[in-house]
Amino acid sequence: MTDVRDRPAPPAPRRRPRYRPGSLEIFALILLTAVLLRSQLASLLTKVLPSGWSTVFVAICVQATPFLVLGVLVSGAIAAFVPAAFFTRFMPERAVLAVPLAGVCGIALPGCECGSVPIANRLMNRGVRPSAALAFLLSAPAINPIVLVATAVAFQAEPRMVWARLVGGLLTAVIVGLVWEKLGRPAWMKPRLREQSDSEDTGLKVFLPTMRADFTQAAGFLVIGAAAAATLNTVVPRTFMQHVGGNVALAVLTMGLLAFFLALCSESDAFVAASFSTIPVVGKLVFLTVGPAVDIKLFAMQSGTFGRKFAVRFAPVTFVVAIVVGVGTGLLFFGGWR
User: pLDDT category, 333, cuts 50, 70, 90?
Assistant: First the structure.
């Protein structure tokens, strides 16, 4: 007879995983609370913050949000339904042709710069030369249609800004790509593992998580950027901003550094740039050229994806090229420093 003690214990009942709200649910709850308590929040903000701060902040957020939503929808759809091989099929082998073509292909990827880093990494894994993949990484968030439409809405009084941004973003991507082709070293990047299969998850399995991640990340940076812009417009003495705007070199450097540290999403940065009324238009173009190419969050993402040796070399080169190109393009399109 079998001893009862020798019998296997019955399997323990499986516990249901506890529900933990994600960042999107938390963001939606905060947004709903703000809508329901908008009158109380408005009176509180009026007491705590300077007059006009909430007006500038809300105006930037309201103008930029539709483009942000449209951008993450299209970006998620491309990640889910367009195979990565689509971008490598027609890529020339010569760098002098591959880099400009990769830069132009950036117009086919609506979305913010956060999504371009993993895509560039995937392109390198598929055999695309690094210089071409990096040109694509820089151009996609700067020249895609959603970013250009958002820029047109933000700068209705200055329609040439759209074309200036297109040319400046594309030139920055191509120049940095060609510089990296000439000076870059494989040892500066993490070792790459060639993919053995083209099979990837597609459809809603990719679309929904991509859209949720892009939206929550980009919306957070939009709120931070709008708050910073509102603060600069209301807290910083107007005489100081006029002094910055009156000194071309100081305005260019200030806007370049702001673009780096504010780390805005490229689908909403035009509305922040347009709010700096005392900054000359060339300075605003520098802001729009530097931001999608290099900022503090991109530096962190590139360090994690490609390696720190890469990031500490790539970021300074991109920053300098973006400022020079932004200034040159601004002088070409606007005929002066105004």
Answer: very high
Rounded CA-CA distance 110/106 in Å is 8
Kindly report, residue by residue over 161-214, the tens digit of the pLDDT: 999 999 999 999 999 999 999 998 888 887 755 544 444 556 777 778 777 776
120 contact partners, CB below 8 Å, separation of at least 6? 133, 134, 136, 137
For residue 153 the two structure tokens come to 């809405």
Neighbours of 223 (CB within 10 A): 16
* Nearest-angstrom CA–CA distance, 146 and 71: 6
Alpha-carbon distance of 59 to 164, in angstroms, equals 24
The pTM of the full predicted model, rounded to 2 decimals, is 0.72
Mean pLDDT of 90-104: 87
For residue 225, give the nearest of 217, 102, 97, 93 by alpha carbon.
217
d(CA 315, CA 197): 32
**For tokens 């309201």, what's the residue?**
62
Q: Distances from the Cα of 305 to the Cαs of 67, 192, 267, 300, in angstroms?
A: 27, 10, 23, 9
Contact indicator for 123, 136 with CB cutoff of 8 Å: yes
The C-alpha atoms of residue 185 and residue 128 are separated, in whole angstroms, by 15
Cβ neighbours of residue 104 under 8 Å, at least 6 residues apart?
139, 170
Lowest mean pLDDT segment, chosen from 32-36, 103-107, 176-180, 253-257: 32-36
